[in-house]
Design goal:
single chain, 351 residues, alpha+beta, six-stranded mixed β-sheet, four-stranded mixed β-sheet, 11 helices
Length: 351
């Protein structure tokens, strides 16, 4: 550069990307990833790719099952409230709960964290939650990507995506084909709204006049605490159930609620007859319905309404399945029965 050159010297940091901060984050999160290590993990963080050795000694015909998901606009509440660790658990839960419904054991997990400006403390809190979720699911956090993209996100904002790979014995895959007339439909309690319906939830909160730090409903729970409750991870309970009982299907109740998700595992000729008297909705859902003046049908196809996972077993296995799931800490409800008819859901009773 000559003395007459008026160009200002630039570097990556001046463009908004701090390489040092990125390296600092990697060092901060290495202990979290190490806590999730399990047999099969080869190497650690920092490589160009993550390595995992398939457990072929335990599987004759291993089939890989992959899933990816995000957290949705629940992130908006996390960012605005400064509660970042729980959404890491949400991220893992949304992925591992999806693949376990096909009978798969989650093996490893990767995350994608994108932001306009990397705040190491915030990012480390999120990844700590991801590691906690991986521990709950029994899978390893083997890597991920942190993208600092100035101009793409508003100050303080970030986005998350997760990717999980699991394995299942080919002969034990669950695809709904085993479901038959007379099967019992069991519901496992959710831990709140999980990670679905938050665009509507935020709209309801905005028009309700209730502050996030205010108590709501008759129980006096703080609204923000209820809304930020991490998604329940059902992996260990469901894998244990598969070892002891003949499971016909699982259904993860996410966006679309029971009405949209349960039909995904119903084969032709099978219909889910659900009794709404089979469980009591948690206070959060009663409050949301009242404040939003939401119709019952809309509630059931938007929110999980207190049921985060559905289990379908043969009628003769129902009692044993309930007992085992309760042993593993699940609250279990008898939702109804599989009848003959089109592959959809009908409801009797009322909220």
């Amino acid at each position: 550069m000559t003395s007459s050159d008026s160009r200002k010297p630039l570097d990556y940091k001046s463009a908004g990307v701090d390489i040092v901060a990125g390296n600092t984050l990697v060092e901060r999160i290495k202990p979290y990833a190490k806590m999730t290590s399990r047999p099969g993990v080869l190497g650690g963080l920092g490589g160009f790719g993550s390595l995992f050795e398939l457990p072929v000694d335990r599987y004759r015909q291993p089939v890989l099952v992959a899933g990816t998901d995000g957290v949705g606009t629940k992130l908006r509440l996390a960012i605005d409230s400064g509660r970042h660790d729980g959404v890491g658990i949400d991220l893992v839960a949304m992925c591992v709960n999806d693949i376990v419904v096909q009978g798969a054991e989650p093996l490893f997990f990767l995350d994608y964290y994108a932001t306009g400006h990397l705040d190491v403390d915030v990012a480390a809190s999120v990844v700590k939650g991801i590691a906690e979720g991986c521990q709950l699911a029994g899978c390893a956090l083997v890597g991920g990507e942190t993208a600092e993209m100035p101009g793409m996100y508003e100050s303080g904002d970030y986005d998350l995506a997760g990717f999980c790979v699991g394995v299942v014995e080919k002969s034990r895959m669950l695809d709904g084909s085993r479901v038959g007339v007379g099967d019992r439909i069991l519901g496992l309690a959710s831990s709140g709204a999980h990670s679905n319906g938050y665009s509507l939830i935020r709209k309801i909160v905005g028009q309700s006049g209730v502050g996030l730090l205010d108590a709501f409903g008759s129980e006096g729970e703080v609204l923000l605490d209820a809304l930020m409750m991490p998604t329940r991870i059902y992996v260990r309970s469901l894998l244990a159930l598969m070892q002891r009982c003949e499971v016909h299907a699982f259904a993860h109740i996410t966006g679309g609620g029971i009405s949209e998700n349960l039909p995904r595992v119903l084969p032709p000729g099978c219909h889910a007859a659900i009794t709404l008297d089979g469980w009591q909705r948690p206070a959060l859902f009663r409050w949301l319905q009242y404040e939003g003046a939401i119709a019952d049908a809309e509630m059931l196809r938007t929110f999980n309404c207190g049921i985060g996972m559905v289990v379908i077993v043969g009628e003769g296995e129902a009692d044993a399945a309930v007992a085992l799931l309760k042993e593993h800490g699940e609250a279990v409800f008898d939702l109804g029965v599989v009848t003959s008819g089109e592959s959809s859901v009908s409801y009797t009773g009322s909220f």
